[in-house]
Amino acid sequence: MTGPHFIAVFDSGIGGLSILAEVRRLLPEVQVVYLADTAAFPYGGLPDGELIGRVATIMAAIDAVAPPDLAVIACNTASTLVLAPLRARFRFPFVGCVPPVKPAGAAPKRAKAIGLLATPATVGRAYTDNLIRDFAGESPVIRIGAPRLAGLAEAALRGRPLPPGAVREELAAFFDAEGNCLVDRVVLGCTHYPFLLPELAAALPPEVLWLDSGEAIARRVRQLLAEVPPRRTENLPALAGTALFTQAAADTAELTPLLRELGFRRRGVLPFPRGAAEAGPPAEIVAL
Predict the structure, then answer these.
(1) Closest Cα partner for 34 from 217, 282, 233?
(2) CA distances, 138 to each of 97, 111, 131 (Å)
(3) Looking at the domain that runs over 6-97+215-287, which CATH code has it been given?
(4) What are 205-236's pLDDT values in tens digits?
(5) What is the value of pTM for the model shown?
(6) Coil, strand, or helix at residue 35?
(7) DSSP code, position 241
(8) What does the pLDDT look like over 63-76, one tens digit per residue?
(9) Where in the chain is the domain with CATH 3.40.50.1860?
(10) Catalytic site residues?
(11) Strand boundaries in the chain, DSSP class E
């Protein structure tokens, strides 16, 4: 009897769990190992070479002990850089995520600008320039490289209160001097941001259309897995159902309710301090 597929989902932190939630909705039987490079979070300030090297090293560490059928790079900042070298090195397919500028440009009956909300690194990439050139159409695009939003999302997911007004401060460029909103569509260009959608939506007019890439990524995962034979249940790796973080941190336990909700049974550490050449084997694995 065959069983489910086994995939890896990677992010610099826990924003990739928003992508995983969409994958779960479409493919509830899929088994997952989640990889969060918390030792190097946030990725926005990392030099390109270090970022590429870290993602490749983490993928190699997992491939050595639990080769996945597919890997999702659930980080816009990383996806703009790492997909080509990863595809050249590993045998399994990769799905990346990019800001959903194309559907924003195609949205009907919209007269104002498109807002692009992402990390400072993502908004400045040539990849993003090309997306806007090819898909924004006639709409102007107002870019915000938000330095704090990903960290605010990480805090919110751990149950910590957000500083009053912090989210609205990050959106200041979407308003003119008189307080008028300049955008009617906002592209969420970081996988952390869907976790802040209630706070983000409350800061802009109710008619603003919000777009993220989670559903499209889930559909692509389903399409690619249809070409891969499912595994026998007894052949699933021991890391299936495990969330791994690259540094041990007490606050990881605060994520237990969310991890359980997404089907994880264990959490642990894939030791990879900033500046290290290699990642250690998975360790400190405990039941949730």
Answers:
(1) 282
(2) 24, 10, 13
(3) 3.40.50.1860
(4) 999 999 999 999 999 999 999 999 888 888 88
(5) 0.92
(6) strand
(7) T
(8) 999 999 999 999 98
(9) 6-97+215-287, 101-212
(10) 75, 190
(11) 6-11, 31-36, 70-73, 94-96, 113-118, 141-145, 183-188, 209-211, 242-245, 266-269, 283-287
